[in-house]
Design a protein that fits this description.
- The protein is of the alpha/beta class and 489 residues long.
- The chain is 35% helix and 19% strand.
- The strands form 5 sheets. The chain has a 7-stranded mixed β-sheet. A 5-stranded parallel β-sheet has the order 9-2-1-13-19, covered by helices on one side. It has a 3-stranded antiparallel β-sheet with strand order 10-11-12.
- Helix 1 packs parallel to helix 15 (470-488) and helix 3 (103-113) packs across helix 4.
- The chain starts with a strand and ends with a helix.
- It binds flavin-adenine dinucleotide.
- Residues 7-13, 30-33, 38-40, 53-56, 245-246, 274-275, 279, 306, 308, 373, 425-426, 432-433, 461-462, 468-470, 473 line the site of flavin-adenine dinucleotide.
């Protein structure tokens, strides 16, 4: 059996390891932290269970296909519920729009907001479905290592129909004029880490994912996905070693031979690095073997980082749904302060999640589990004072919106931002979600998943193809497993 070392036990590392073990490799994952999940780790405090990162379960088909690939079902590992309403959007003056689950109800809502928009909504979704089908079932499965992968008449035809060269902002305005509808439709694009003006219209596939396929939640929390993936990996024979920070890879004549960690040395026939790409290049491989220099990395457009608060509250909070988006301030100003003139936002938009609304297991009885997230520019100076300043701003708005005091009922509080992303994951510039999905950072234009200098060294994860997010990270892991297997054979 050929040995493969996978660096990191996030979604991409677990998927790569499982894919390789399934193909008959002897796989060991070396993870620096004490648990699997990477950005999707979990922690418990004062009876609360906090998911540390992802909270939106979108594209259930990708998870189902992942487990099905190994003859398993998602339900073998966790129970999913569909959220209805999917989420609430809070606009200026605390006006709230709760988005119902299901296309018929959404069509009626749109018609109410902009007469005549119901039919346009259907047409928009029809086009988005095509984009989802081609984008998710074909494009994201391309390893993007050569232009020849994209040279076929059918694919060229698809590229035109996918609206790759038109911005999402322009595309959406062909269908709707109502400002609230535009906000609702542009929201999922923010997950891609760029503004709707800089995101290809192809990504209306995100609206299809959200509105047609739905917003789901694994009971017990998002970390249940990780637990399921770990159980499956181990069932396939993958060994996962924790508290093993990889420090160096020994390369001989262009071939990786050994991986050295804080605890020991491991012989190997190939390496898959799922830790942050820049960290692997800069700290683990060093100058001789990196694919890209610092100038290249400096020019990348990073998706935002985040300032997060995990709060345990000793009472139930009225009005909050499971997912709540506070779009009650100027979106373009906040976007400007993330992308154009990076600085701490003057008037932040933010996201509040209260999973205890759906799931009583994540908080003690009668209590609320709250997660707050402000998207912020990467690489900002992250101080305790700054975090406290934003805590006050957010709590004031939250208390006003919910009509109740919250601060005096907070029994557990933890903040998390750039410093923590760097320390816990070696995140380049303290990024949360990797690279932005701009046109110039798509497919072949992303950092490649294969080393150009080490024959048996591969990359996976949110900084390479296909991109950030849990479903793309799973795909990235499976993609690299299949590329490595093709070449090793
Ligand atoms: C706050 C937040 C909210 C998010 N919300 C969502 C959401 O709602 N829905 C969604 O789909 N996506 C969401 N995402 C994005 C999603 O979580 C990520 O895209 C995905 O988890 C990335 O997985 P990965 O395997 O590429 O990287 P990671 O999860 O970062 O895994 C890399 C692993 O490598 C390890 N590592 C690093 N350096 C070393 C080393 N030297 N030696 C050994 N191990 C090392 C790390 O500890 C980590 O475990 C969110 C992300 C964040 C941060």
């Amino acid at each position: 059996m050929k040995k493969v070392i996978v660096i990191g036990a996030g979604f991409s590392g677990l998927a790569a390891a499982t894919g390789l073990a399934d193909k008959g490799y002897d796989v060991t994952i070396l993870e620096k932290n004490s648990m699997a999940g990477g950005r999707a780790r979990v922690f418990e405090a004062e009876g609360f269970t906090f998911d540390m990162g992802p909270s939106w379960y979108w594209m259930p088909d990708i998870f189902d296909n992942y487990f099905a690939k190994f003859n398993k079902k998602t339900s073998d590992y966790y129970d999913l519920v569909r959220l209805d309403p999917s989420y609430a959007v809070i606009l200026e003056g605390n006006e709230t729009i709760a988005l119902p689950a299901g296309v018929d109800k959404l069509e009626a809502l749109f018609e109410e907001m902009e007469p005549g928009s119901g039919a346009k909504f259907r047409e928009f979704l029809r086009q988005a479905e095509y984009k989802y089908d081609v984008g998710i079932n074909q494009f994201v499965w391309k390893p993007s290592r050569s232009i020849s992968e994209f040279v076929s008449v059918k694919l060229l035809y698809d590229v035109v129909r996918l609206d790759v060269f038109q911005s999402f902002a322009k595309h959406i305005r062909k269908f709707f004029t109502d400002d609230k509808i535009l906000k609702l439709m542009e929201f999922p694009i923010l997950f891609l880490g760029a503004t709707p003006e800089n995101t290809p219209a192809m990504y209306s596939l995100m609206n299809y994912a959200e509105m047609q396929l739905g917003t789901w939640y694994p009971m017990g929390g998002m970390h249940k996905i990780v637990k399921g993936m770990v159980a499956l990996a181990e069932e396939k024979g993958v060994k996962i070693l924790y508290n093993q920070e990889v420090q160096k890879v020994v390369v001989n004549n262009g071939i990786a031979k050994q991986v050295i960690t804080s605890q020991g040395t491991f012989d190997t026939d190939a390496v898959v690095a799922s830790a942050d790409y820049h960290h692997v290049e800069d700290k683990i491989l060093g100058q001789t073997y990196r694919n890209y220099d610092e100038e290249y990395w400096d020019k990348r457009v990073m998706a935002p980082s985040s300032l997060l608060f995990y709060l345990g509250v000793n009472k139930r909070i009225p009005k909050l749904l499971h997912h709540n988006l506070f779009f009650d301030e100027d979106f373009s100003l906040h976007a400007h302060e993330i992308y154009t003139e990076p600085k701490w936002p003057s008037k932040p938009l933010f996201y509040a999640s209260a999973p205890s609304v759906t799931d009583s297991s994540v908080a003690p009885e009668g209590c609320e589990n709250i997660f707050l997230l402000i998207p912020v520019a990467p690489d900002l100076e992250d101080t305790e004072e700054m975090r406290e300043k934003y805590y006050s701003i957010l709590m004031e708005r939250l208390e006003k919106y919910c009509g109740t005091s919250i601060r005096d009922s907070v029994v557990y509080k933890r903040s998390y931002a750039h410093r923590d992303f760097k320390q816990d994951y070696h995140a380049f510039k303290g990024n949360a979600y990797g690279l932005a999905n701009t046109l110039m950072q798509t497919a072949l234009l992303k950092p490649t998943l294969k080393s150009k200098k080490i024959q048996n060294f591969y990359y996976t994860g949110q900084l390479t193809v296909p991109g950030p997010g849990v479903p793309p990270s799973l795909i990235s892991g499976l993609l690299v497993a299949s590329e490595l297997d093709k070449e090793m054979r």
